[in-house]
Amino acid sequence: MKFLYDDESFSFEALRAAGYAAYGGADLGEVLVTCRKIPEGDEEAWSAQWGATAARVERIGRDALAAGHRVSAREALLRASNYYRTADFYRREDPAADTESERLAMASQQTFADAAALLDTPARAVRIPYEDTTLPGYLFFADDSGTPRPTLIYHGGYDSTLEENYLALAAGALRRGYNVLTFDGPGQGSTVRDLGLHFRPDWEAVVTPAVDFALTVPELDAEKLVLVGTSLGGYLAARAAAFEHRIAACVLHDGVDDFHEVVKALAARAAATPGGIEEMMAQDTQVRWVVRNGRWTLGVSDLDELVKASEAYTMAGIADRIACPTLVLDAENDQFFKGQPERLIGELTCQKELILFREDEGGGEHCHEGAISLFHQRTFDWLDTLLAH
């Protein structure tokens, strides 16, 4: 699906940013006027223009808040957070030394925190105990009644941020009466930037502390905890569900059977390309981003180390340990994990269902970007039915 750009990565990321309009995370006009100033493949212009739009919209939110317009402030700050995240997306050459990347990331976090405090039921910022530190998270409540409710424990994937998780899933869950505990795990958002934590394949070591934490919150129904993971999180959540059996259901958005297979295929393409991976990165925005983001989030220095580090990210010999009902989502035109959801569903022995999102219905992109309402309708209808029984 081409959206505004011929460059596949720019098209996808613009669609991702625009798709959050469903929950107030974007305005289509703001997306259009921003993108028309950004040439194909120009990452510096991408960062500058999205950053400028974010700053302008943040000012709207700050002025509205100062004037006592709570809803207007919340809406503008939520959009600004999404735009700041988008501005930072391609700044992955050396994020630790990139002061502009740090500024954009912090601005996304702060504008979201200020918007979350203005929700009808304000979100609660939390720290989840994890090894010798804590992971940042948010608790979102469907209302302030204190009634224990079915609860999603939600994390993203290879490039997700805690703040984006609200738009990606939590907002839709709240409308349907679910509470949500979401967090940045190692390798994600502020944990890699501020704590130096990198992805780990044994993700149950991350989810089990989140479940432990959830069980201390009276508003979260201990019998109806649902684990959801997005993108690479489709592997991470599956891996965790194989070992953490206190969850009532698992949703893989989308299913990932073997992350190593994807990285290994990229390395094989590089080996067959004159000039190798450096030439591929110079010519292809998506390849450049995948390698740079992998170096940062997995804590490696080059593609060879990325291939090696990814070896353990597979569900082979593990998938049949998942005991809870599991929903596996698939996208017809997935550019990262095509074919893997079908393979994973075949390895599961638990109660299971596969839902394919087709291109001709607008849901064929990776993680159904641009079709968030359809994604939420199918996912939550499945969960509502399951948990009712």
TrEMBL record:
The keyword Transport belongs to this UniProt entry's keyword annotation: no
Every AB hydrolase-1 domain range: 155-335
SUPFAM superfamilies: alpha/beta-Hydrolases
GO molecular function: aminopeptidase activity
Keywords: Aminopeptidase, Hydrolase, Protease
Entries under Gene3D superfamilies matching the protein: acylaminoacyl peptidase (1.20.1440.110), alpha/beta hydrolase (3.40.50.1820)
Family note: Belongs to the AB hydrolase superfamily. FUS2 hydrolase family.
PANTHER family for the chain: CONIDIAL PIGMENT BIOSYNTHESIS PROTEIN AYG1 (AFU_ORTHOLOGUE AFUA_2G17550), DIENELACTONE HYDROLASE DOMAIN-CONTAINING PROTEIN-RELATED
Designated name of the protein: Dipeptidyl aminopeptidase
Species assigned in the record: Streptomyces minutiscleroticus
